[in-house]
């Protein structure tokens, strides 16, 4: 499994537009076979930072999603919403893997 962590710098005056952008992507990622864990919007503290997390079974599935979303009309409409409104100033993407907690065997000596 691979989890994608997105950190967004958003325009706080365009939060409603960013919320709409997020709603669209939750549905789209799920439609493309991923699991969206949600968008996390500013509450206390920084007013211009938001996060999103979503997972795919593996990097190959994520790459299929990226390729297919590049030509999908609904995905392009979501990208256009962000471009048109300027709700996203910039973003950072990280790829994470979950810790396997099922392993019960103690590590041997190094």
Q: Your description of this structure?
A:
It comes from Streptomyces poriferorum. This is NIPSNAP family protein. It is a single chain. This protein has 110 residues and is of the alpha+beta class. It has a single domain, classed as Alpha-Beta Plaits, CATH 3.30.70.100. It has helices spanning 15-31, 59-69, 73-85; strands at 2-10, 35-40, 49-56, 88-96. Strand 2 (35-40) and strand 3 (49-56) form a beta hairpin. It is globular and about 55 Å long. It starts with a strand and ends in a 14-residue tail after the last strand.
Main beta sheet, described? 4 strands, antiparallel
Overall geometric form: globular
Distance between the termini: 27 Å
The succession of helices and strands, N to C, reads EHEEHHE
CATH level-two architecture: 2-Layer Sandwich
What topology, given as strand order, has the largest sheet? 2-3-1-4
Strand count: 4
Mean pLDDT: 92
Total domain units: 1
Q: What share of residues are in beta strands?
A: 25-35%
The CATH class is: Alpha Beta
User: Could you name the CATH topology?
Assistant: Alpha-Beta Plaits
State Rg.
16 Å
Query: What is the helix tally?
Result: 3
Helix % is 25-40%
Protein name: NIPSNAP family protein
InterPro entries: Dimeric_a/b-barrel, NIPSNAP
Organism: Streptomyces poriferorum
Notable traits:
110 residues; alpha+beta; Alpha-Beta Plaits; four-stranded antiparallel sheet; 3 helices; 4 strands; 37% helix; globular
Topology summary:
Elements lengths: L1 E9 L4 H17 L3 E6 L8 E8 L2 H11 L3 H13 L2 E9 L14
Antiparallel strand pairs: 1-3, 1-4, 2-3
Helix pairs in contact: 1-3
């Amino acid at each position: 499994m691979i989890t994608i962590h997105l950190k967004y710098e958003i325009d706080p005056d365009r939060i409603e537009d960013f919320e709409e952008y997020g709603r669209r992507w939750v549905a789209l990622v799920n439609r493309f076979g991923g699991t969206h864990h949600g968008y996390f919007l500013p509450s206390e503290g920084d007013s211009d930072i938001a996060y999103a997390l979503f997972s795919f079974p593996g990097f190959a599935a994520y790459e299929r999603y990226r390729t297919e979303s590049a030509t999908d009309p609904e995905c392009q409409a979501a990208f256009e919403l962000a471009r048109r409104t300027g709700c996203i100033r910039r973003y950072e993407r990280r790829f994470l893997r979950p810790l396997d907690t099922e392993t019960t065997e103690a590590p041997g000596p190094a």
